[in-house]
Write a structure and sequence with these properties.
This protein has 8 helices and 12 strands. By secondary structure, the protein is an alpha/beta fold. It has 2 domains: 94 residues, Periplasmic binding protein-like II (D-Maltodextrin-Binding Protein, domain 2, 3-Layer(aba) Sandwich); 91 residues, Periplasmic binding protein-like II (D-Maltodextrin-Binding Protein, domain 2, 3-Layer(aba) Sandwich). The chain has a 5-stranded mixed sheet with strand order 4-3-5-12-6. It has a 3-stranded antiparallel sheet with strand order 10-7-11, covered by helices on one side. β1 and β2 form a beta hairpin. It holds the Pfam family LysR_substrate.
Length: 245
C-alpha cells in the first residue's frame, strides 16, 4: 500500500483507493454519530386530547411552540374517554368534572356555551331564539341532555318536548352535524368564531351558560416536576388558551 522512495513514503494506487474508501466510511460514521446525538437530545412528548380540543386549540397553533422548542417532538393522540394510560402518555387534556385522584391537574378552559346552527335553519326565521323551543328542530347533545336542560333552565325558556335523538361523544362531530343543518348544538363562543365568519355556523343566541365540566391538563405529579419539556408545553398551552377565552 506504501512505497518508500528517495523522497520519502508515497501511497500506491491500491493504497489511494483504500484511503478514499476509508475517508468516505469515516465521513458516514461521523454523520450517523451526529444523527444519534441529535436523536438523544430530542424529547418526545406524548399527549392525548379529544378531536375537538386537538384540532381547534392545539393543531392550529402548535407550529409556534415547535419552532420555539426545536428539540421537542409532540405526539398528539386521540383520547379514550374511559382510559388513563399513565405508562404510555406524558399528559392528557380531558373534559371532566373531577380529575383522577392524586394526579397533577390545572384547569385550561372553562367554556361559555352558546347555541349554534347552520344558516340554513335560520333562513326564514324572524327571531332565531324561536328555534330553541321549536319541537321540530333537533337538539344535538354532547354525551347527555344536561347542557340543554341547564341552558333552558338558566334562561327561563319553556322546555317543550323536542327531538332529542342525536347524541355525540365529541364536540367536533357535533359541530359537523350542526354545520350540515342537522340541528342546534352548543359550543364555546370563541372557538366557533371562524365558522361564523365563514358563514358555516350562526349563533342562535348570545345567551350562554358555563357547564360544570371543564378542559383540564392532567399528568402525574412526578412527570410535571421532572419533565422540563412537559412544563414548557403546559405553560405554552395555558398562554394560548388564555388568548381565546
Amino acid at each position: 500500500m506504501l512505497i518508500r522512495g528517495s523522497r520519502g513514503v508515497s501511497v500506491t494506487a491500491e493504497g489511494a483507493l483504500l484511503l478514499e474508501v476509508c475517508a468516505r466510511a469515516f465521513d458516514e460514521i461521523g454523520a450517523v454519530a451526529t444523527l444519534i446525538g441529535q436523536d438523544n437530545k430530542t424529547k418526545i412528548l406524548r399527549v392525548r386530547a379529544g378531536p375537538f380540543f386537538a384540532m381547534e386549540v392545539i393543531a392550529s397553533r402548535i407550529a409556534g411552540f415547535l419552532k420555539q422548542n426545536p428539540g421537542i417532538q409532540l405526539h398528539l393522540n386521540n383520547i379514550d374517554i374511559d382510559s388513563i394510560a399513565q405508562d404510555t402518555e406524558d399528559a392528557q387534556i380531558k373534559y371532566c368534572l373531577h380529575p383522577p385522584a392524586g394526579m397533577y391537574n390545572i384547569e385550561l378552559l372553562k367554556e361559555k356555551l352558546v347555541p349554534v346552527c347552520s344558516p340554513l335553519l335560520l333562513a326564514n326565521v324572524a327571531n332565531p331564539e324561536d328555534l330553541l323551543v321549536d319541537p321540530g328542530i333537533p337538539r344535538l347533545h354532547y354525551r347527555d341532555v344536561k347542557d340543554w336542560k341547564r341552558w333552558i333552565s338558566h334562561h327561563g325558556f319553556d322546555d317543550l318536548t323536542a327531538n332529542s335523538n342525536l347524541f355525540f361523544d365529541d364536540q367536533h362531530t357535533l359541530l359537523a352535524a350542526a354545520r350540515s343543518g342537522q340541528g342546534i348544538g352548543f359550543s364555546h363562543r370563541p372557538l366557533v368564531k371562524n365558522d361564523v365568519e365563514r358563514g358555516s355556523l350562526c349563533i342562535v343566541s348570545e345567551r350562554y351558560f358555563e357547564p360544570e365540566e371543564s378542559y383540564k391538563f392532567i399528568c402525574s405529579q412526578e412527570n410535571i416536576a421532572t419533565n422540563q419539556a412537559l412544563q414548557l408545553f403546559r405553560d405554552w398551552l395555558v398562554n394560548e388558551v388564555s388568548t381565546i377565552c
